[in-house]
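Next up, sample data.

:::
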Amino acid sequence: MALAKKHPRLRAVVQDFPGMKESFDALCPAEIKDRVSFVPHNFRTEEQPIKGADVYMLKSILHDYSDKYAIDIVARVRRAMKPNSKIVMIDQIISPYGAIPWYMEKVQEGLDLHLWLTLSARARSRGDWVQVFRSADEKFQLKTVVHPPECLNSVMEFV
């Protein structure tokens, strides 16, 4: 919604479980409702219904899944993509020890433990993310990584 406000020509489709539609309707500002829509979608069991989009954004999704299921989700998106589409993923990249402040390392360790214990998932390094995407399609390349300072999430662009 913030992107649609900032970019008046942007058209976006928000996908989430059907139960989220009410929240979407309540939160979506009237001035962008003609350009931002909601489509119920279960990315774990359904093929991606939006075919040939320029960009597919996955925000805070894949970290909740083991490699097997994360690869399956990416593969479903890949099958819907056109040759010049991209995936922009917003998620955590586990930093090597000593690369970030100690208190952020502790948050990362806690997240990794939480994912492992509750979801059989795990936090991933940059190389781990590349492996997930290449396992879904060997042609995937990590083009850009932006990591805002003091932020746990990074923005990764896969083409």
About this structure: The two ends are 24 Å apart (CA to CA). The longest strand covers residues 86-92.
